[in-house]
Each structure stands twice: as structure tokens, then as C-alpha cells.
Amino acid sequence: LGNGKVTFQIFDRWGALVFKTDNENESWDGKVKGGNPAGEGVYFYKVILKGSSGSETESKFTGSITLIR
To answer: Which helix (H) or strand (E) holds 7?
Structure first.
């Protein structure tokens, strides 16, 4: 992203944020806040890109994943 910034977020089915990082090299390990394993089910992700000019764009990288244990 050059001088830009990326934010990666994971939400549960009720819309509660369970994971967030601004580090483009970090990924979700399937745990929720507090370090407990997330339950099986559908989770939603969103990637927000901010260009070096400061303009924020919500990318088309949004969707859902199903976590199966």
C-alpha cells in the first residue's frame, strides 16, 4: 500500500467486533477478545483501505466466513 494503511476487522453475527488489526501482516487466529476460541458460526469481515492522500475507501473486500471446529 505504499504509504497507505489497511485495517482488517472481523464481526460476529450480531455485529460485535471480535478482531481488529492495522498490521497488514497479521491475520485472525479464530479467537475472540480475551483469547478464547470463537464459536462455530458465521463471521463477517471488512477491509478498510486508506490511501496516502488520507482519503478512506471501504474496499469491496467484505463478506462472510463460516468457522467450523
So the answer is: strand 5-11
